[in-house]
Amino acid sequence: MGKGYRIPSSDPSIVAKRLPTARLMPRVGQPLSPAPDATVAHHNTSSSHEHSNKRHGAKCKEILQGLSGQQQEYVVYEDVSFQDYIYVADRLESIGYAKAWKRLTFFPGSQTLMASSPSAAHESVLGVLAEDLCGTLLSLPVPRTTLACRTQGNNYLRGDSICGIPDLCIQMHSSASLKPRPLWIMESAFTQPDGDVMRKLHAYASDKPDLLVVGKIVLNQARPYRNPGSKGAIARELRSSELLTIDEWTDRAGDLDVLSQVVVDGHTWFSLSSVEIHVWVRQPNDTRIVLDRREGDGYAFRTLYPTVDIDGINKAFWCGLSLLKETIICELQKIADVEQATIRLMEDWSPPSQLLNATLLVSALTSAAQLTAYDRYYDWRSKLKKKPYDSAKRLTRASRTALRDSAQGD
């Protein structure tokens, strides 16, 4: 790996400034491992300190080698110290990579580290939702130098329960405070177990009592994905052929509007049984949002696939945006130089009653199913070292657009 790398400080004040907002994997063929001086031997140290230092180095090596190994979209590591977490995060940030590992989530109490590489399917519904929310927040009649609510997917949140980057986070930035307030958090789950997703949401809700809305989008696979391996009949057949280009893949995939499964060359690269959307909204008498609620005004559940029914979700989002409006008005009243006319404009503002468009959501999901299938095929096929694969290039932005247009029937 070249020159040595110093173990970073675990001082929270330093960590908060240094933590990256994206995680990337190594170049193809370049394994991740701790830097040569990850476990530097110090003179005049106790045996317990040396043992701790060795354990730290071994754990970091296990994690980094695991993340650079075979194709994985989600993995969990136990018995990870805060120092391990910071070192892994910094190490991932310090190297050039090809495969994105955008989400590291750490639970200090249980010393658990979750690492995920979001796929196109994972991002699909969430991306449309983020665009809709962003457009709505830009319509707020408030000078953004005074107050702004921003929809972002790279906000690092650190608390006693969890350190991580939610898939979607709305934060309120006020001129009256240097620190933004998270008000709305959502997670998207594709290959993650639902229990792990709820664990994240409960932890964020515990650390951030001001949250008004919490939600999750759950894409349930019809069956867990498995690559063809390296020794089966399908693997032998695919190995003997060139790596498919995106256009060749599209031709073999057949009907691009089919969401249930994507089968190419006899192998299932993507499958889907249902898509659920769950939303929790803080109620007037609650001191914080309640995620154990499964009925009533504080909870909404609808499906996007196979049945399209999102009316209840639109109603829940309207309620959430109405709470956001009240929070903004209260904040404006605390700012000394805000004119009353601005507050009146905010009082007159109304959130859209139909934030989400089902047609756009389904379209994004359909395109993402094909993209996820091709990415899985490419990742598996490119790791077979039996022959060069220069004839096909990695999926580019242009080819992604072409596939999306084809999926939409253009």
Show the helix and strand layout.
Elements: H1 12-18, E1 24-26, H2 47-67, E2 74-77, H3 82-94, E3 97-100, E4 103-107, E5 112-116, H4 120-138, E6 147-152, E7 157-158, E8 163-164, E9 168-174, E10 181-189, H5 194-207, E11 213-220, H6 233-239, H7 246-253, E12 261-264, E13 267-271, E14 274-281, E15 299-305, H8 311-334, H9 340-348, H10 358-382, H11 397-407
Parallel strand pairs: 10-11
Antiparallel strand pairs: 1-3, 2-5, 4-5, 6-9, 7-8, 9-10, 11-14, 12-13, 14-15
Task: Determine the mean pLDDT.
Answer: 82
Q: How many extended strands?
A: 15
Largest sheet: spatial strand order:
6-9-10-11-14-15
Please count the helical segments. 11
Tell me the radius of gyration.
Answer: 23 Å
Can you describe what's shown?
With 410 residues, the chain is an alpha+beta fold. The protein is built from eleven helices and 15 strands. It has helices at residues 12-18, 47-67, 82-94, 120-138, 194-207, 233-239, 246-253, 311-334, 340-348, 358-382, 397-407; strands spanning 24-26, 74-77, 97-100, 103-107, 112-116, 147-152, 157-158, 163-164, 168-174, 181-189, 213-220, 261-264, 267-271, 274-281, 299-305. Strands 6-9-10-11-14-15 form a six-stranded mixed β-sheet, sandwiched between helices. The chain has a three-stranded antiparallel β-sheet with strand order 2-5-4, with helices on one face. A two-stranded antiparallel ribbon has the order 1-3. Strand 7 (157-158) and strand 8 (163-164) form a beta hairpin. Helix 2 (47-67) packs across helix 3 (82-94) and helix 4 runs antiparallel to helix 10. It is globular.
